[in-house]
Amino acid sequence: MSQDQASVGTTDENIRILVVDDSEDDVFLLQHTLKKGGINFTLVHIETLEELDVHLHTQSWDIVISDHHLAGFSSTEVLEAVKHFNSDLPVIIVSGEIEEDKAIRAMHSGAEDFVMKDNLKRLIPAILREKKQHEVKKSRQQLESEYRFLKYHDNLTNLVNREEFESRLSAAMDSANGNRATHYLLFLDLDQFKVINDTCGHIAGDELLVKTSAILKSSLKERDTLARLGGDEFGIILQDCDKNDATITANNIRRAIKNHKFIWEGNLFHYTISIGMAEINEYTSDYHELLSCADIACYAAKDRGRDTLVCFTPIDEEYAKRRSEMQWAPRIKRAVEENKFVLFHQSMASLQQEMGPHSEFLVRMKDGDQITSPGAFIPAAERYNLMPMIDRWVICNVFAYLNRNGLHQQADATYFINLSGSTISDGEFFDDIRQFQQQYSIRPQIICFEITETAAIDNLVEAVEFISEARQLGFKFALDDFGVGLSSFSYLKTIPVDYLKIDGSFVQNLLENAIDRGIVQACNNIAHAAGLHTVAEFVENEQTHQALREMGIDFAQGYGIAKPEPIVEFTQKGS
Fold it and tell me: What is the pLDDT of residues 471-501, one digit of tens each?
């Protein structure tokens, strides 16, 4: 073996050439030709197939030049070795003599060119051409590789994305069905991500996701699959393991996340993760069912207090509940698209001085001749983030109804409309309300939006901002289900509202339960001290009605006052 290097001539880039030839004289002539032609090159000369294999695997080459007739082998074997190693590495055959049919076969076998030794002036153009084409191929392959990576990976964490994850999940199901193997699917959701993201900004949120990805990856085996499924959700496929091993891995992940201290701009944050687990075995046949099982288990983990692992079990009540919600989701979307929701209203009674008509608009779903109560579909709408869609429908149709019936400019009426927590977090919703208000010429003071205490607390920053902006336009607000939170009274200092609707669980039993009566009285006293009106919910009989009047409650609502009625009847009453 010999090596020669030249750095003269007109080309700037050094070309790395591996020459297979058993003649030192021919190689010398080849080097002379390259130098004379102004080629910058590094040339290594070898004589055997063994040397060829070593040099292909240990060094990087731009081109291979081979004689045709060699001691004990031919250029055909050189071609086979090179193309087996790298099908894109160009090979030029340089030979003293060769039959035409063998030259044609060599070209068909992958040789890029054939140059006769008595006409080496063709060699330099051939080398430059193949070098350029090789670089173009490499660039194209690099771009294709980057494209494939971007297509199947998350651009923030570099983890597998949802599309690739679902493909690998299908492969795991095939493996379980074909080989009777057992795998486990994990769905993971960060518990305090929104707090950190909202408090410190999206840059901090992104950094937290990257660090979380590293923690998750370090807890897994090489054969496992880790993916970012979107937002702060991750998915894991644990290959070839039993329930015990899967549980150990999942709990190790949970503890690792809990013990991680995330520091941003000098502030220390602790966060946790909720994990849902589902088995993949020979009986797993429905892909979407498998995904929903892990999803159900993950949400069950959140419902049970977070920082928890839940393994899916088909007989659990949680499964039946979540499955029902999944079936409702597409029906809700169709109901909005096909205008199959209907409006009801429920009147309230004024218990002190007459303060004008007060009533609440309620939504129902029409399914053929059947009317479905909100308790059947609202949990699914909340779960699948469909409430903003429903709330928009309700507001638009309530405003349109009030306008059609000449109720839109009343001076003393108040109409209550419920809003969900996800709706007030929707950045475009406030503009939609203002648009509907202008479109239907609604006097804002007759509309009181209700938001539950829990939803307000869970979305405190968005709730306060949304309520403040809407009240500036003249809309009123009520805090619904008040009293169920541990810190209810303290939030009155933060959330600007006009009404408190005292939770019906306290109202129902206030005649028999002194504690419930005391809570209702306290809610009323605090509300009046803050300049708010009170509404007692779930008033079911005259005795409760009278007791509330004596306690100083402003309004009563419930079946003992009026049952929900379709707005057609409401129109006939003209109130």
Answer: 999 999 998 888 765 455 667 777 889 999 9
Torsion angles phi and psi, residue 85, rounded to 5: -75, -45
> Can you tell me the distance from the alpha carbon of 141 to that of 183, in angstroms, rounded to the nearest whole number?
34
Assess whether 412 and 559 both reside in one domain. yes
Does 319 map to a domain?
no
pLDDT digits (tens, 9 = 90+) for 6-34: 433 345 678 899 999 988 888 998 888 88
Residue 185 has pLDDT above 60, yes or no: yes
Joined together, the tokens standing for residue 516 give: 């419930």
Same domain (yes/no): 23, 53: yes
Q: Say yes or no: 522 and 543 in one domain.
A: yes
What letter would DSSP give residue 270? E
> 22 — phi, psi (to 5°)?
-100, 15
Closest residue by Cα to residue 196 from 270, 273, 259, 266: 270
The CATH code of the domain that includes 496 is: 3.20.20.450
Same domain, 462 and 511: yes
Q: Which residues contact 241 (CB under 8 A, 6 or more apart)?
A: 182, 183, 184, 249
d(CA 482, CA 492) in angstroms, rounded, equals 10
User: Which one, of 537, 573, 570, lies nearest residue 554 by Cα?
Assistant: 537
Task: Give exposure, 209-236, as e/b (b: 16+ Cβ within 10 Å).
Answer: beebbeebeebbeeebbbbbbeebbbbb
Active site residue 232: yes
Task: Report the CATH number at residue 101.
Answer: 3.40.50.2300
Number of domains in the chain: 3
Phi, psi of 235 (to 5 degrees): -130, 145
Contact 20, 11 (CB under 8 A): no
Rounded CA-CA distance 78/85 in Å is 11
Describe the chain by its helix, strand, coil percentages, rounded to 5: 50, 20, 30
Same-domain pairing of 395 and 525: yes
pLDDT (tens digit per residue) in 394-428: 999 999 999 999 999 998 899 999 998 888 888 78
pTM: 0.55
Residue 157 domain flag: no
Q: Are residues 477 and 547 in the same domain?
A: yes
Q: What CATH number is associated with residue 307?
A: 3.30.70.270
Q: Is 326 exposed, middle or buried (0-12, 13-18, 19+ CB in 10 A)?
A: middle
- Euclidean distance between CA atoms 356 and 281, whole angstroms: 64
Most confident region among 12-16, 64-68, 201-205, 211-215 by mean pLDDT:
211-215
Give the torsion sign (CA, 143, 147, 153, 156): positive
User: Is 561 part of a structural domain of the chain?
Assistant: yes
Q: Is residue 320 part of a domain?
A: no
Question: Are both 403 and 548 inside the same structural domain?
Answer: yes
Which has the closest alpha carbon to 386: 330, 304, 338? 330
Cβ atoms 453, 477 nearer than 8 A: no
Both tokens of 552, joined, read: 């100083």
DSSP string, 32-57: HHHHHTT--EEEEEE-SHHHHHHHHH
Question: What is the residue range of 246's domain?
Answer: 162-314
Choose the catalytic residue: 154, 191, 232, 480. 232
* Residue 424 and residue 513 in one domain: yes
Between CA 522 and CA 101 the distance in angstroms is 104
